[in-house]
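Reply to dn_fold:

You asked what the input looked like. This is it:
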Amino acid sequence: MMSSLSSQTSALLASLDIPEGYYTQGTRVVTSPLTGEEIARVAEVTSQDATTRIGASVTAFQAWRQVPAPRRGELVRLLGEELRAGKKTLGQLVSLEAGKSPSEGLGEVQEMIDICDFAVGLSRQLYGLTIPSERPDHRLTEQWHPMGPIGIISAFNFPVAVWCWNAALALVCGDPVIWKPSEKTPLTALATQALFLRAAARFGDAPADLSTVLIGGRAIGELLADDARVPVISATGSTRMGRWVGERVARRFGRSILELGGNNASIVTPSADLDLTLRAVAFSAMGTAGQRCTTLRRLLVHSSVYDQLVSKLVNVYRTISVSNPLEGNALVGPLIDEAAFTAMQTSLEAARAAGGTIHGGERENVNGAGSFYVRPALVEMTSQTGPVLEETFAPILYVMKYDTLADAIALQNDVPQGLSSSIFSTDIRDIELFLSSRGSDCGIANVNMGPSGAEIGGAFGGEKETGGGRESGSDAWKGYMRRQTNAINYGRTLPLAQGVKFDIDDGSAKG
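and this is what came back:
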C-alpha cells in the first residue's frame, strides 16, 4: 500500500502523462524530506545510454541552429504557457520532493515562467555590433552564433528554476540542453521534461532531443563534463563540485558557467530602519531552511544598534514556526536529508569551540526519525573565524559587531565566496560606498533588503569561489553563444591594418 505522499506524488506525475514505470520501476529511491518516506523509484541512465543521448542532442543542434531565432522564441513562449497551466502541479512536486513551502514551490515555477517571458523578447534581440574600421572601404561587425548542446548540472534546492534559467536562454540562442538534475530531486526534472515535450508538440516541427534528461549519479556528471561535444557546462552547487567541474571542462578547453557557494553577509548601519531589517534578516537567513545559495549567513551589526536588533532576532529565532509546510503555515520546513543535519551540528560545535553563543540549532520532533527539522540557529561570534568562513548549507546565522563601515566591508569581503551581499542604511554616503569599487566584492549587492533571492532581469552569479558565472538576465545569454568578428572589404584595393605593406604587381613582389 502506498503512503499518502507517495500517492500524491504518483497522481501528480500521472497528470502530466508520465508513464508509471518512469517513477515506480527504477533502482534509485526518491524520498521526501517532509517525512523521510519513499515516494518513488526512478531509473538511472547508463553511461552508454548517456553517450548516445548526447549524440542525439548534437543532431538536434544541427537542425535547431538553422531555425530563425524569433521562431525559436515561439517554442519558449509555448513552454511558458505549459508552465502556467502546470504551475500548481509542478509547484506541489517541488514541495514534496525538495521540502519547500507551497508559496516557495509555486514561486519557483513562477520564476521559470518569468525567464521564459524574458527569453521570448530576447529572441529578437541577440544583437551584434558594427565597429569602425581603420581601413578604407572596410566594415567590421561582431555577431553571435549558437554554441552547441548545453550541459546543465543542477542542485536540489532549486530543482527546476535553475534549469529554466539556462534552458530558456539556450533554446532561443539555438542550443539544445542536456540536463543532469540532482540525484535528490529527479521527479521534478521528469515533470519539467513532460511540460517541455507538450510545448514541443504544439510547436510542431521542433527537432527531437532538444531537451534531454540524464538521471544518474556522479559518473553521469563526469561523462557530461568530459564530452567535447558539449561545449558549455552550466553547473550549480558547492564550491567543491564546481572546482571539480571547472577543472575537468577546462582540460578539454570547454566553457563553464559556474554558480557555486555563497557565504553571504548583510551590514546593518546605525541609520538602518530596524523594523525593516528584522523582517529582511529573518527571511534571508531562515527561508527555505537556510538552503539557498543566497541565504544570509553572516550579519555584521554596528555596535550602537547591536543589542536592540539582536535581542529581537533572538526572540524571532526562538518563536519561529518549524514544521511540515504542507500541514500548516510553518515558515521553516525540513533540511533535505540527514547529511545536511549532521553538517549543521558539526558547524555549531565548531562555533561553540570558537567561543560562539548559540541560540537554537536543536532538532525538532516533526514527522519522526526519517525527516530532519531543526530550529534555526543564531550564533553570536566575537570574531570572524572557523566555521564563519565556510558555507554550511543550513539555517545558521553568525552575528558579529563592528565599529566602522570600512571594518564591516572588510569583514564582509574577507571570505573565499563572493555571491550576494546587502546593506541596511538610510545614509546615502554609506550606500554609495557599499556599491562602489571599494565596497562589496560580490556579484550581487542589495540595499535595504537581504541577500536572498533575485529577479530574472539581472544577471545572477558571483565572484571568487562562487565561480564567476552568470545566468538568467542582462547579457547572460552571451554565455550560450560563440562570438564571431567579421571584416568586410567592399572596395577594390587591399589596404592592410596597422599600415603594413605587402604589394604584389602582376605576380611579382615589390621590394
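The longest strand covers residues 138-146.
Hope that clears it up.
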